[in-house]
Design goal:
single chain, 217 residues, Aminopeptidase, seven-stranded mixed beta sheet, 8 helices, 38% helix, 24% strand, globular
Amino acid sequence: MLTLTPELLLRAYAAGIFPMAESADSKELLWFDPPLRGILPLDGFHVPRSLRKIVRRRVFQVKVDTAFRDVVIACGEPTADRPNTWINEDILNAYAALHERGYAHSVECWRDGRLVGGLYGVALGAAFFGESMFSRETDASKVALVHLVARLVRGRFGLLDTQFVTSHLARFGAVEISRIRYKRLLNAAVSREARFHCGVSEAELVDSFLQSITQTS
């Protein structure tokens, strides 16, 4: 069985392949290269009006890369809607190592000093590969997603890979594309540079983004 190392993960993502464990307790890793791939077009991201109000009200304090390991652990916790999870200890440790090398990132929602929602993923060139998200309070993961997309647009990313399309992601504009088309987009994105850390505050980042999509919608 292959050891899941940061180097192996980066090679896999560059080739359009991603791993998942069979379960949180399993040591077996499965590798996926699905015929249909989920992406969220950055120029077609839809934010419902009600969510825009929540983002602008600053219901949550949004931070980036301050609690990466805690976000991955929270994403791996079973819920009523998701009793089985694919994040095992090997996944947790490998992505934490990627984070230490600057390739994996978390967007976190906090309230009263508590981590209440967030997401994590991998940045490679101008491609971002979303891995998982969680919410302990209503709308927390949605707010994190809006902040992520605002950051990717500001940083000149070209691809947001969601792996699969769920009904939740479809509301934001996620679509399925063929493997061939995905590989073309992937090759173009990983060959370019982008910046995940943009040097502006979260408030400035997201306000500017919401204003831009309001003007074009």
